[in-house]
Amino acid sequence: MFDSWHGCLTVVPKVAERHGQDSLRQPQIAALLRLLAQFASHVTEDVTVVMPTGTGKTETMMASICAFPIRRPLILVPSVSLREQTTEKFRSLGILRELGAIRKSTQNPVVTVLEGGIRNDSEYELISLSNVVISTPQSINNCDLAYRTKLFADCTHLFVDEAHHVRARTWDAIKKEFEGRPVVQFTATPFRYDRKKVGGRIIYNYPMSLAQESGVFRKIRFESVYEISDERGDREIARIAVETLRKDLDEGFDHILMARCGSKKRADAIFKLYEDRYSDLNPVCIYSGIPGRSKKDEAIRNKQHRIVVCVNMLGEGFDLPELKVCALHDIHKSLPI
Question: For the whole model, what pTM was predicted?
Fold first, then answer.
């Protein structure tokens, strides 16, 4: 399999200009070329790629791993849902082959998903047979120390997705294990939520302003609701959001509504509101710790639910372009998010 990756990259900067959407986007190509130059230099400093959410960070990561090629990278992601999403893309190489970014003869990698830790030789054998290992920091910390140490030694590169988490203690401990080896951080922002820098030399930064100019991000139509009581306000927010969703569906758009709440208790109450009034749209409620979360995530991606009630957002990197209508029953402390 690994041999098929040598020389597999077919994309060049002019391809995107000539074929538009039937290729990697221009920021993906620019970031990819910067990464390949970094790998070829054999400099082992930490580097960071800044690309706004929705511009294709995962595809850029996959293309760089196949094109160099990299023998056994460890991919770190912050959540279970993002781990499943990233695994699915790596196992099929996403849309790289469809977009002509790699040759059709390029074989898919053998991917190991680290879920509950490694506790015996049989489990570790899967790692030794893998081309790509994908995990969350929590799963790695669940490994027995000997196997965790062996895992770090056997992986050639560390890729960190949503890298603004990297200063957190569990992330930072793993990153330190790769001192002297290449570490690549992907993030939508070079700052964490506490405004500290992510770290690592920024080798590519695709600004939000340019993403807007190029049409990657469109204008948001915002409609405010003012009611004296919270209960009436929630009903009115739901009514306007559902009207918008139904209008989009009638016009042929495959859209989904997300209702954002600030706590699990609020989510349960808001879910009941949607379930009582708009059951034909099959509302679903999801948040951390709720039973059957993985199955619910899968059902959402399969468009079995047109209304998704959640706490905060669906999780960083959750890839579902059909989420086009957002009902903010509890706004975030920072509205721009």
Answer: 0.78
